[in-house]
């Protein structure tokens, strides 16, 4: 008999897992739970989530509670009484009374090697912090935030130039078979859930706009990690002549740093033009080779277009 599943998820990250579950004959998706339609774009028109779009295309029942802790949500799950609930980036905390309903509990796919990077933005913070490896964890939901016992894990390498959206796409694809294998092994009694070690826990809180503000005293590699990890929102930004300014760039090689004009001191944020390129001085005498700039109220331009348009003066800086 097929395992009866309720799937909870919202963004693109959850789509590959739902697709995989739909393709497997030993699982039946009884319903899909996703966040309510939200206004998007300049027009503020209501838009459905990627998970809802897939569910409707597959002819599945879709339930969109404003609050999953509501009595009506409890009655919904109680009525369905699924064997398991799979949750992937749903976007709401699951109340304790719902956790008890499925026979096999709630299984969450989390984008880190728990207990590291508990929280809402694990892939982003792994990149920001300069990690070279990360992974995925299937875990049983408990009353805490990403604190439940671990079922299975798989490791992934983080590319040296990989952005958060690129990493998340790879993680989403790798997570789908991990969920399927975890469900099957859980049903057969082949997994012993392993409690997390709280002393090893680190946290990955929801991103805030201010996280994107560049501290030019960081090294060029650290600034670059923030550019990659904060893509597409809030992005990495600074100020230029009092105006907000998003920037993109990569660490410069040592031979590029030697091309600067004599007399330019290692002042963090200083803008240097050399050999047709534009650089920004960072901490520990490292340089960021600027690639693109987006000043507020204007369009994104190349670093060279920015320099020509701004008519840079000597010793001009970002972040002042």
Produce a short descriptive summary:
Helix content is 26%, strand content 25%.
Give me the secondary-structure topology.
Blueprint: E1 3-9, H1 15-23, E2 27-33, E3 38-40, E4 45-47, H2 50-57, E5 62-63, H3 71-80, E6 84-88, H4 96-99, E7 106-110, H5 122-128, E8 133-140, E9 150-157, H6 164-187, H7 220-229, E10 237-240, E11 243-251, H8 254-257, E12 271-274, E13 277-281, E14 287-295, E15 301-302, H9 303-310
Which labels suit this protein?
Methionyl-tRNA Fmet Formyltransferase, Chain A, domain 2, seven-stranded mixed sheet, elongated, Rossmann fold, 2 domains, single chain, 320 residues, six-stranded antiparallel sheet, alpha/beta
Structural commentary:
With 320 residues, the chain is an alpha/beta fold. The protein has two domains: 3-200, Formyl transferase, N-terminal domain (Rossmann fold, 3-Layer(aba) Sandwich); 209-310, Roll (Methionyl-tRNA Fmet Formyltransferase, Chain A, domain 2). Helix content is 26%, strand content 25%. It has helices at 15-23, 50-57, 71-80, 96-99, 122-128, 164-187, 220-229, 254-257, 303-310, and strands at 3-9, 27-33, 38-40, 45-47, 62-63, 84-88, 106-110, 133-140, 150-157, 237-240, 243-251, 271-274, 277-281, 287-295, 301-302. The strands form three sheets. Strands 5-2-1-6-7-8-9 form a seven-stranded mixed beta sheet. The termini are far apart.
